[in-house]
Amino acid sequence: MKVTKKNLGKVVEKIMNKVIGERRVVYFNIGYWDLGGVSPCFFSPIVLEGKKYHMFIDDYEKILVLLLSHPKVREIEYDEKEGCVSAFFDVPEEYWKEEDVEELEEELFEEDEEDE
Questions:
Q1: In contact, 15 and 63? CB cutoff 8 Å
Q2: For a 10 Å CB count at each end of the chain, is N or C smaller?
Q3: DSSP for residue 96
Q4: Domain count of the fold of the chain
């Protein structure tokens, strides 16, 4: 399900049901798109202390609010079956690599030639 500001409460409720009711971890898959594909980062609001685990369930909503308010996030999805929140960022232009820009320009030029 797509996560939006309008359905944030519903998504948080579903996550809490999974975490508290089913005692399952819901993790985040944060990635960014570049010309080579997606570079993912997986994490959850859980801290390991010795042999004990501490889960910070309030952080799920805080992280979702942070993602929803970020201008570079392309989309946020919650996969209830998988127990995963995925968010994908566009790479800011100031971090583009010169060779990636050149490769993109070549691809666009080739597409233009094919259309003619």
A1: no
A2: C
A3: -
A4: 1
